[in-house]
Hints:
By secondary structure, the protein is of the alpha/beta class. The protein has 28 helices and 21 strands.
Amino acid sequence: MTENKSYQHWRLEHDDEDIAWLYIDKADATTNVLSREVLEELDELLQSVATERPKGLVIGSAKETGFIAGADIREFTTLGSKQEALTLISRGQRVFDRLAGLDLPTVAMIKGFCLGGGMEMALACRYRIADEDPKTKLGLPEVKLGIHPGFGGSVRLPPMIGAPAAMDLMLSGRLISARAAKRLGMVDYAVPTRRLEDAARGVIRQAPKPAEASGWKGWTNSDLVRPLLARVLRKKVAKKARPEHYPAPYALIDLWSKHMGDPPRMMREEAASVARLAIGETAKNLVRVFFLQEQMKSLGKKGDFAPKYVHVIGGGVMGGDIAAWCALRGLNVTIQDRSHEAIARVIKRAHKLYRKKLKKPLLVRAALDRLMPDIHGVGVARADVVIEAIFEDVDAKQSLYREVEPQMKVGALLATNTSSIPLEVLGSCLAQPNRLVGLHFFNPVAMMQLVEIVKTDTTDAGVVKQAAAFCRHIDRLPLPVRSAPGFLVNRVLMPYLLEAVTLVEEGVPAAVVDREALAFGMPMGPIELADTVGLDICLSVANILGKELGLPVPAQLEEMVNKGRLGRKSGQGFYRYENGKRGNPVIEKNYTPPADLSDRMMMRFLNEAMACLREGIVESEELLDGGVIFGTGFAPFRGGPMNYIDTQGKAVLRQKLQALQSSHGDRFMADAGWGE
Ligand code: NAI
């Protein structure tokens, strides 16, 4: 091989067969992203390839971490105007157009992540070959950042694999394996790692006809079919996202539907559409959420702790699912409960989870093998992490700790999943109280990414670090919080839920209350959420927090629990449920809800968030926003409660609180954190 002129982010080599091998290796970065500089160098390189005219060009990555993770999202945050955005996007399009226009076979050789702009670059190559290792993931997840593909991806993918599959990938933003991509026609070959280079060489030698959707798939892009399919797609998207909250998927459908018949025009319209979206509020806030997530991830570095064995005590709703999740993520887990039946239920639920997530029987078997029933608790002595998730009872927990602590390895983590007992109280029975930490998981464990890491003033800092690292090992997001009633998530949720129940008590239909919360952007209405969590659990948390924070608890909640109306699990709560499915009560046509309905719920939420920040429950506004978004689902497109307060203006919202206080009472008293 001979190496050419040196570039900062790329390496170009020529082999004996006169094939050019171009490797991306972004300088000073662990992951390849397509920054302005990276694209500029690529442009220059492609011009020299066009003049040199080698037999073929293969583009791969020199980094172990993967192919290309996408465009450089940081550059998006600096965009001041639509024109600036348009310049950035059009430049990317031009470079990929140059790649697509090369008069020689071009191959993207994909190993590891190939996302967003990286996928669009691969689509601009004549052929794509991907490593079939499960670590290789391909996709166009732009919608998750409030935009859609903008470097020609939306123009190139539908004709290649047909509109239904292409639109599904771009609208959902989901990632797929190399084999799945091969089945769809998005890559030409999925091969084992050791065969990648040979396969690339082979394709260049043979130069087969490039992939194109044929038969009915090709037809789905025709002028006749597009308007019909677009209508179906819009309906499907509407079930998940409203256009006023998430405009990108709708913009993508419009773009394809209007312009797929004229690709050059579509290219220009694609750039204009992404430029419009990129400077909008939704995209800005979703990019913020992306960075909040990165920040939370960075709180727990895997390298700080290498747990192999986890021991979970208490195989109930939470303990069982925590144990199953840890085993799914590759750890060896022992699950202890006093009752054989409880353990049997854990294994059954785990089996269901593994079948859904892992699919292949061999992998399911292996995960089940990692989850070991352990009635007598022999796993304690070997465990790197012991998680207690038994009944919410101080005496029971303390007597368990007294038994467990002397058996634990030196340096092993002792964690509790308690949601309401102060760690100071629980730890007082330990020889080393500063080793106890809270790992507060949320229900359902497999769906909720956030884990609150609860610490007291005396919790060992190293222990908190270990706990955060453990969260990263099991792919959860750690959020350090102070040991205080409700921590962060339950505390901000509870006043909002209670206000919703108060509204129902006042005669507002539950479905109207929920409808207003959805209109704000919450993923589920508060009343349905209460039913789903279980009204008994809600009542118990409300009573504990109510006492601590002076929250009035609506009488209706207790009445319903006394009558056995516990929500989804009992078939009847605020709604009726049949086979787990919620009934859909009809709202009277001329019903007018109170004008301040949404404000009443949301202002209590925001007021509590403000109080948490002032009290230092979390360390910063960013962590508060991240924690609340990933723990409660708070409208991601609003960028979190603190970001929302900033955009609306503190003074305006404070006035709202004052108005609500004078008409509805002191539960709306503005927290001192709002300032004067
Ligand atoms: P659960 O009542 O479903 O399960 C408790 C399990 O612990 C039972 O299977 C019981 O047999 C077992 N157990 C009790 N004492 C034991 C002992 N000494 N040794 C071994 N096993 C014992 O309880 P759930 O809901 O799973 O809650 C557990 C903990 O998680 C509590 O501290 C709760 O506050 C907390 N939590 C609960 C959430 C929820 O949504 N249910 C959410 C977050 C935290």
